[in-house]
Every structure is written in structure tokens, then in C-alpha cells.
Design goal:
Length: 288
């Protein structure tokens, strides 16, 4: 018989096994004990109140861990059950064990079964990111175009123009503009790759910016874009090919880029130069 119980000192070891298996349902489920082990006694007491375990005839088969961002919004940090259980029924029981009312947000990397389960429970997709990968083996040398020049970003010289270009490219009503301090902060990070930052120029005027960072030895294109008035002229395709060549020259065999799920123009651009979807990560919302 299925029942939901609170996390306590008697069953916390059972959670450890479920926590170890958390990536089976969702590869980006958070590690509860990574947070819990650094807390003091009082903090641990309150953290345990945010976890419910699903029990089936004395055996623990699933759990949910939430955080409250506000009284109306709750973030599901981890949600998992044993895959041989009735997924929809079990997840509904876990969610119903939470007495709170409001919006529950859950970030999930799509696999063969979680997407369908979340939809059946009643979650709705509200945001998404596609991580794309390109195999660089066999990448062709870029032919030079006389109407385009590409120049390297120079530290302690080009921060102001980079800040301006990025703010124009990614300008949105709900976006906080970058400051020059943000650019300097970026340059100070471990992922920063000095030989991977470039402007694309027309008549010596910067019309776009693109950057390769290196995270866990993996090159990723970030902050890539062309000013709106210069789009649809092939500059973006030429520029992304240039960055692919930069990666090859630096010994990388693959390169990655991320794109919003609803940005079809950017998606088709990256696809046209060899990128393929490697991961899909979505934010889901359940209203109660």
C-alpha cells in the first residue's frame, strides 16, 4: 500500500539510496545531501520538512524535495521514483502530500519517459533550452570574405564596445542590461578563454560578438549574436563557422551551443552548420 511520510532521522538513510538514483528520472535532479550535509542542526531540522518520501509496504520507492521561493512559487529541487512503479500515480501522491498551494516549478532534462509523465500529471512547459553539439572532425577551412573582418576582443580596451554590442543584441524589456563591470567579471572566471572572443565587423564597424568559453574541458559558444539591422545577410552563419575554426585550431573535436526552445531562427542557423540537439532542458509549471 502506498503512503507518503515525512523525512526523519529514522528513514534518512533510505533517502540516500533514492538520492543516488535521482538521475534516472531526471539527470539534473538536485543532490539533497550536497546541501544538507553543510547545514547546522537547526537548518537540517527545517530542511527535512521540505522532503516527502513515498513508501510501499515498508519499502521506500520515491521522494520529492521542494524549496519555497515565495508564498506563491515553489521550486521542486528533486522528484523521483523507482522506474518500475506506476509513475503517474506515484508522482501524483507525492505532489498531493504537499499541502502548499501555488505554482510549482520543476526543471527537467528530457529523456524517454519523464516528458510524458510530467504532461500526464498536469505540468505545462513554460521555458526551454536546447543544448546542441557539433562534431568538428572534417571542419572545412573558412573562405575569407572581403566585406567582413573579424577582430579579437582585447582585454582592458574593448569592454565598453562589447557591453554595448551585447546589450543591443539581447535587448528585451525584462532583461537587465550588462555593465562594464559584468564584462570584467566574465574575464576573471575560470571558464574564460582569451583566444575565443571576437567581434565581426562591416567597414571596420562591430556588428556582432561571439565567444567561446571552456567549461570542464568542453568548448561552448556563448554571447553569440548579430545586431538586428545586419541580420539575414549571412553574417551569422559566417561568424559561427569562424568560431568553429577557432575551436579546431585550439585542438577541440566538438563544440557546443545553447539556444532557447522557441528561437527557431537561431536553431536553424546552428543546425545548418552542423549542430545537432544533444540535450533538451525544460522548466515545467504545475498550478495548484
Amino acid at each position: 500500500m502506498l503512503s507518503c511520510v515525512n523525512l526523519n532521522n529514522n528513514n534518512i538513510n533510505n533517502l540516500k539510496k533514492l538520492n543516488d538514483d535521482r538521475k534516472i528520472f531526471n539527470n539534473i535532479n538536485k543532490d539533497f545531501f550536497k546541501f544538507y550535509n553543510d547545514l547546522n542542526f537547526i537548518q537540517k531540522h527545517f530542511r527535512k520538512k521540505l522532503v516527502k518520501l513515498l513508501e510501499d509496504s515498508g519499502k521506500y520507492v520515491g521522494y520529492i524535495w521542494i524549496n519555497n521561493d515565495s508564498r506563491k512559487y515553489y521550486r521542486i529541487e528533486s522528484l523521483s521514483i523507482n522506474i518500475n512503479e506506476d509513475s503517474v500515480k506515484c508522482f501524483k501522491m507525492l505532489l498531493n502530500s504537499i499541502s502548499l498551494k501555488g505554482s510549482f516549478i520543476y526543471e527537467c532534462e528530457k529523456n524517454n519517459f519523464n516528458y510524458k509523465v510530467l504532461k500526464e500529471i498536469g505540468f505545462k512547459k513554460i521555458q526551454g533550452t536546447l543544448e546542441m553539439c557539433c562534431n568538428l572532425i572534417g571542419t572545412k577551412h573558412l573562405e575569407i570574405r572581403k566585406d567582413i573582418s573579424i577582430t579579437k576582443f582585447l582585454s582592458n580596451q574593448d569592454e565598453k564596445i562589447r557591453c554595448y554590442i551585447q546589450n543591443k543584441i539581447f535587448e528585451k524589456d525584462d532583461r537587465i542590461p550588462l555593465s562594464i563591470q559584468d564584462i570584467y567579471f566574465d574575464e576573471s572566471q575560470d571558464y574564460y578563454f582569451e583566444d575565443g572572443c571576437y567581434f565581426i565587423n562591416i567597414d571596420d564597424k562591430p556588428i556582432g560578438y561571439g565567444q567561446i568559453i571552456v567549461n570542464d574541458s568542453m568548448p561552448i559558444v556563448v554571447n553569440f549574436g548579430i545586431l538586428s539591422e545586419y541580420r539575414k545577410n549571412g553574417y551569422g552563419k559566417y561568424f559561427i563557422k569562424f568560431l568553429q575554426n577557432v575551436a579546431v585550431k585550439n585542438g577541440f573535436k566538438e563544440i557546443y551551443i545553447k539556444v532557447d526552445w522557441d528561437n527557431r531562427i537561431a536553431f536553424e542557423l546552428y543546425k545548418s552548420v552542423g549542430f545537432k540537439v544533444d540535450k533538451e532542458i525544460y522548466k515545467w509549471k504545475l498550478q495548484r
